[in-house]
From TrEMBL:
Keyword Secreted applies: no
InterPro entries in the record: SusD-like_2 (IPR041662), TPR-like_helical_dom_sf (IPR011990)
PROSITE patterns: PROKAR_LIPOPROTEIN
Keyword annotations of the record: Lipoprotein
Matches recorded under SUPFAM superfamilies: TPR-like (SSF48452)
Full protein name: SusD/RagB family nutrient-binding outer membrane lipoprotein
């Protein structure tokens, strides 16, 4: 694996350099262009960035800043999506459009299917954060520098079709250079259907009829069946591909993040076994103590009074969980409660928690006792709240996904408003768009938000 990363980074570096026609300047031992599967692998390197973000953690109020509190006070500021278009998405689009992929790296149909699935997954994350974004006209390079912003509803409809088409394209045979699933196409097919399922649940408040139809179609096509199916980005114990938080906490010696009081008070009273993974006990008392989100002037030795980010989370090779089986089970519990599917809501709920604990701790020991706790036991009278609160606990560190579920369901309903600032409901567009794509930018914010690119505008499904 380590050798592969070295080769991959080397080939991508070559691609970024000027090409020399003179043979004397050409090294015959290095590739002059990346293969389809290398481009896919390059896009996969961007996956952990969807999750590993202090800002995402602040949106879901998992972490509180201990020293520089500004970002957790929800300032009105732009957030760029350019890097996602310029790196993973353009690489994936190149694979999709290519007419001469090398079949020696695996069936061409499978290479294109994986590229489609990943492209859909990246775009799902993008549109859920910003709302309407360039989609149909995007990724055309010099042919179109000013793409139109498409409505989120249109993007969702097309992503459903793209994911279905990708699943139908898959044929027998694995692909090379796959640093996520090792080329196993059965896993990719399940991922496509699982993403469809989770996207469908987003429509619960805006278009439940379509949401139900897409949800059931995804289940019929085959979704995750165990934690072994999870979309996980596994970092390496190597500086070339290490966990983001390792660089922040260990390399840069930053004790900037503590568990929030909200999170600790949700987990500590019920002896949640995941808490020992999520954070470390305080150095002063050995207890778990959360920091109030957005509180100012916590500096220096005061960090010893709070539970900081868990050492398991910032290990150099710590994994990043992106799409998980527990999410599937929580979704099935909610869909059953909504009447979209048949089943036992409580059974799905209990299974989801058990699977989550296994994912985070590596064991299910003590789960039965945990589920018997009155504060954890399923509450049929408040089913959506029970499901949503435990889903929030499970999604720890994938703050943007937890934030999307909070926007959709309203749970947990005890997130705080630092300095009176409510949790934002979207990210504002990059400032550059007012200059780089002026007409389309202003048309998009006028259409969605009445002309103001506010972090309190609402995306299509959050109405």
């Amino acid at each position: 694996m380590k050798r592969f990363y070295i080769i991959l980074f080397s080939s991508l570096f070559i691609l970024s350099c000027n090409k020399f026609d003179d043979e004397i300047n050409t090294n015959p031992n290095l590739p002059s262009e990346a293969s389809g599967t290398q481009l896919i692998a390059s896009a996969q390197l961007s996956l952990p960035g969807l999750s590993s973000s202090p800002k995402g953690a602040f949106m879901a109020q998992y972490l509180a800043e201990t020293q520089y509190v500004g970002q957790s006070l929800y300032p009105q500021e732009s957030t760029s999506f350019y890097s996602l278009y310029q790196s993973p998405l353009i690489n994936l689009q190149t694979v999709i459009d290519s007419e001469d992929l090398n079949g020696n790296d695996g069936p061409v149909a499978n290479q294109k299917a994986v590229a489609k699935i990943l492209k859909a997954y990246f775009f799902w994350n993008i549109t859920d954060r910003w709302g309407d974004v360039p989609y149909f006209d995007a990724l055309q390079g010099g042919d179109n520098y000013t793409p139109v912003y498409d409505s989120q509803e249109e993007i969702y409809n097309d992503l459903f079709e793209e994911l279905k088409e990708a699943g139908d394209m898959i044929v027998s045979g694995n692909i090379n250079n796959d640093i996520v699933y090792g080329g196993d196409m059965s896993k990719w097919e399940k991922l496509a259907n699982t993403v469809r399922m989770l996207m469908a649940l987003r429509l619960s408040e805006v278009d439940p009829q379509k949401g139900s139809a897409e949800f059931n179609a995804a289940i019929s096509a085959g979704v995750f069946e165990s934690n072994s199916d999870n979309l996980v980005y596994q970092h390496l114990a190597d500086a070339n591909n290490q966990n983001y938080w390792f660089d922040q906490v260990v390399n840069q010696n930053r004790e900037w993040w503590a568990l929030t009081e909200t999170l600790v008070e949700e987990m500590k009273p019920v002896n949640d076994p995941r808490l020992a993974v999520y954070g470390d006990p305080t150095r002063s008392t050995g207890e778990y103590i959360g920091l109030e989100f957005g509180v100012e002037e916590v500096t220096g030795t005061e960090t010893e009074e709070f539970s900081l980010l868990g050492s398991d989370i910032y290990e150099q090779d710590a994994p990043v969980y992106l799409v998980t089986y527990a999410q599937v089970l929580f979704a099935m519990a909610e869909a059953t409660e909504r009447g979209w599917i048949t089943g036992d809501v409580e059974e799905y709920y209990n299974m989801a928690i058990e699977v989550s604990i296994e994912q985070w701790t590596g064991t299910t020991e003590g789960v039965e006792d945990f589920l018997d706790n009155p504060e954890i036991a399923f509450d049929a009278n408040n089913a959506i709240e029970s499901i949503s609160n435990q889903r929030w606990v499970h999604l720890y560190m994938f703050g943007y996904e937890a934030w999307s579920e909070w926007r959709r369901t309203g749970y947990p309903n005890d997130l705080v408003e630092p300095n009176g600032m409510a949790v934002p409901t979207r990210l504002s567009y990059p400032d550059n768009e007012a200059f780089n794509n002026e007409d389309n930018y202003y048309e998009a914010i006028e259409r969605q938000f009445g002309g103001e690119d506010s972090i309190y505008g609402k995306v299509w499904w959050d109405q």
